[in-house]
Amino acid sequence: MTITRTTLWLLLLPGVGYLVVFFGLPLVLALLTSLGMGTIGTNEGFTLRHYADLFSDSVYRDGIRYSVYISVAPTLASLAVALPLAVVLQATFPGKKLFLTLYKVPLVVPGIVAAFIVMILFDRGGEMSRILKPVGLSLPKLVRDEWSLGVIIALAWKSIPFMTLIIGGALASIPADLAAAARSLGANRQVVFWQIELPMALPGITAAVLLVFVGSTGAFAVPSLLGPIYPKPLSVWMYEAAYQQNDWGLATAMGIVMSAIACAVLLIYYRLTHGLNRAIGGETR
Amino acid sequence: MADVQIIGLRKTFGPTVAVDDFSLTVAEGEFVALLGPSGCGKTTVMRMIAGITDPDQGQITLSGQRIDALMPERRHVGLVFQSYALFPHMSVARNVAFGLKMRRQTAGQIAVKVAETLALVDMSSYAERLPRELSGGQQQRVALARAIAIEPRLLLLDEPLSNLDAKLREQLRDDLKALQRRLGITTIHVTHDQSEAMALADRVVVMNAGAIVEVGTPRDLYQTPKTRFTAQFLGHTNIIPARVQFGHMITPWGQLLGAAPLGAGAVQLSVRPEDLGLAACDQGAGHVTEVTFLGAEVEHRIAIAGLMLRSRSSGRDAAVHPVGTKVVLSFPADLHHLSQEPAL
Asked: Are residues B184 and B274 in the same domain?
């Protein structure tokens, strides 16, 4: 029996239809709104005015730059902690079970709560400075500071368990025989990690990096609570444009720019992993 | 001089004793098979020799050097796994070169050695392929090449042929044996397949429940096993209890056999199905319950005095007795009894 074109479309409908209705459609509506032809706000006919406003205003340009900064920095910070942690968790040690439960706690703590925790701990006059004061130590400014360290700490704190989970899974799926074979051929623990385990876990690592990056790009609560007064990330400007200025055209334009950044990262990711897979022969994702 | 000397090796996992008091000496260039059912501890022994598992007790000496406390990378032991364990992100050539790079050989030396070793296992034309682009048999050849490229003092093979289909297994088995003879490399082969162990090994170590049951050449173990376990694990056998009267052995159905070993009151005989003769006779004590045609052989099952025995005969003219035929049995002149088994 050959499947006719109609049957094929019918079979694809549940999956493709879902994507079109709940993912494609909102994106198209947002795009239209940003081009002045929207259904929300005023319909003024095709215009690139909102994008022009967005890119000509230095406040928004800084916003874009800042959004990228608070996506990249927490991602790198998380990776720096999560990768060694995932490696350590492959081994068995006393209390591992308890640790495995505890380290996942940040996964279920909402971002805004994480932001408040950082604020209570690290703000001037917070718990940390109270504890450190008698010892004669003082913390640098970590909340609403120039380098957004508080934002980075809070976002990284949220994403480290998530990253560790994915990278740990990737490491755990490497058969133990491979390490044993490499050891017998003369490789020590470090060589096994850098030459066997890391290349093989790379698809998992890049996936984790990507997901954390995209998650941080849209972060709203954490940068608005812990970030500096200026610059503000695009997500915060977007909220202000939509709800305080009622400028839906500008708000959706910002949304589209943020989606474009995420898509660009996604494309680079596919390029990179494709190249890597060619080079290391891992599985394609 | 003994090449490998293992003394009193012991390993427990929690309450389970995986290996207990395992001692073995392997001569230089010898091919020894560790044979036993799964879970008998043979793989644990191999992993302790390789250094992947730490023994609780015991010593391992290789060419006069204690190795049981050394890191695996310092033992200079080649390893081949059932799962091949090739590095999936490296080409065949890079897999084989891995151990040589770890030994800091020059690029020139490595290239020569890789080409040489791949030629040995007949894989030269696959040097640039990735492992996943190879068949199971080819992958195992590469794994073997990778292990012997470093010219190990000892080669450990952990069920290397178990993942291959029957035809390929035989082919690779013959190649493996030829290669081992040619290189003269001391080899310990872990397997649960008795025919593989017998075909490959100079000596077979039969293991059960973490301990050595019997050690011997394949021929000795097959023809004159000392224990019931060995007799039954290597091929098929009939275990027949016999009592001794006036210096002669008598079967439960009253058949008089040859002279009994001195001082024995009763013995257990192990008679291979191919050694048990069969003739139709109306006064026979046994009768045929099943006839199976196996191609090269015909197998009869005979019920006699509460025992169920097998007899196999081969050749075109092998007689076939229909089910129900009354039969008498005939035994070979040199009857073998299990000397390490208590009499039943």
From this structure: no
